[in-house]
Write a structure and sequence with these properties.
Layout (H helix, E strand, L loop, with lengths): L1 H6 L4 E5 L10 H9 L5 E5 L2 H9 L8 E2 L3 H8 L3 H9 L4 H12 L4 E5 L5 E5 L2 E6 L11 H14 L4 H16 L18 E5 L1 H4 L13
Parallel strand pairs: 1-2, 2-3, 3-4
Antiparallel strand pairs: 4-5, 5-6, 6-7
Length: 218
């Protein structure tokens, strides 16, 4: 009840990470359903059983934004996580976009899929974009996904374009990997202008039938 009360004055509610011991795996799913009755937008970044439990109740539990990494995107859609990253690293993110589009078809508002050093894709009802990060020396990848999500949310509350939301997300995630441990980057440590973003032709790259997974989770 307290979360719902706080959500009344919030632009975003972010549900992130593993669930504390004792909570049912359906907790995120149930909370998203309840939060959809508020005006706040909901983002979810989780994995394994809580993620699958969330997906099992789509579209009722579909959030405004979901932020899977390649393994989590594969869990949901049946695509191969290694192939998703390797194809994107070679400049072809179409499989990641196709996988993300499956989630949009189940009611998710937008998918921000991080693909490790290969960058990230953002897929919405309005289009798809791919961002490649600048070359860096990675120190720690712990928390990079959280930083990417934070960058996206910051850009959204500033009413940035979808391309710039993705740019900011990748800039924050990239900055986090250059820092030790779980250190979060400060805004001045991020470099959005160094992130390359390109719009994708969703008429050819998004259609799941053109890039069918071996087995579809949803």
């Amino acid at each position: 009840d307290r979360i719902l009360t706080l959500a009344v004055d919030a632009e975003w509610v972010v549900l992130s990470g593993s669930l504390p011991p004792g909570l049912p795996v359906e907790w995120y799913a149930e909370l998203v359903v309840a939060l959809r009755a508020t005006t706040a937008k909901v983002a979810v970044d989780t994995s394994d059983e809580p993620l699958l439990a969330l997906a099992d109740r789509f579209p009722e539990s579909a959030p405004d934004l979901i932020k899977p990494n390649s393994e989590e995107l594969a869990q949901l859609t049946g695509y191969d996580s290694v192939e998703l990253e390797s194809a994107a690293a070679q400049g072809d993110p179409s499989a990641a976009v196709a996988a993300a589009t499956i989630l949009l078809g189940r009611g998710v508002g937008a998918v921000l899929a991080t693909l490790g050093s290969a960058g990230a894709v953002l897929v919405t009802q309005g289009g798809a974009w791919y961002a490649s990060p600048p070359p860096i020396t990675a120190v720690s990848t712990v928390g990079a996904g959280d930083s990417s999500l934070a960058g996206y949310i910051l850009a959204d509350v500033e009413n940035c374009s979808d391309a710039d939301k993705l740019r900011r997300a990748v800039a924050y995630g990239t900055a986090a990997t250059a820092l030790p441990g779980t250190t979060l980057p400060l805004p001045e440590q991020t470099h959005p202008t160094s992130v390359t973003v390109r719009a994708l032709d969703i008429s050819t790259s998004v259609t799941p039938s053109t890039l069918s997974p071996s087995s579809n989770r949803l």
